[in-house]
What we know:
Order of helices and strands: HHHHHHHHHH
Distance between the termini: 31 Å
Shape: globular
Radius of gyration: 20 Å
Number of helices: 10
Mean pLDDT: 81
Amino acid sequence: GKGGWNLVLTGVAMFSAMLIGEIAFLLASAQLPPNSAWTEALALFPIVSLIVMFRIFPLSGYHAAEHQVVHAIEQDEPLLPDVVRRMPRVHPRCGTNIGVGVSMFLGISQTRWIPWDDVRLLVAVILTLFLWRPIGGFVQQYVTTKPATPKQIQSGIDAANELLLKFESASKRQATPWTRLLNSGVFHVIGGALLAYVIVSLLAMPLGIKFFSL
Length: 214
């Protein structure tokens, strides 16, 4: 439906933002000597570009409204704009936390700033275990969500009411974990990002350009 295509386009937009950052990284790193430690710092350009996209586009507002609606449902509050608006934007089960945890582990375990492999892996495990939720909450608050507009809150309420109606009509059937994951929209976003990656890769292939080292 329309919502599914919106999620696919979200994936395309996220990849496009990271592509801009990747191009900036390639241009900047070309000015550095080979194997420079600063190359790792420049490799953050795609992430910075993605952060900027979240802050500029309305996606972060809809993301906030989604969290606020979920909080209202979990607290058995009525789905009214004034009620939803006072709910927190950060949710402990948001996929942002998982993304932050994976990024932390991969980033620390592969960094050149710690020269010893065993120490690097140990530091990555310890920091990820203790900090993935606090940092994930911080990223939710200041990056992937922003105060939702009345329109975004109403959109979240309408979507929630539709889902609750479907849930009530199918109350005798218990949704499997796979069904929940499929309905979460994560595959739509990933599919949109992969589609954009394939198109860009095919266009860049005749020029001998390879993005993201994939």
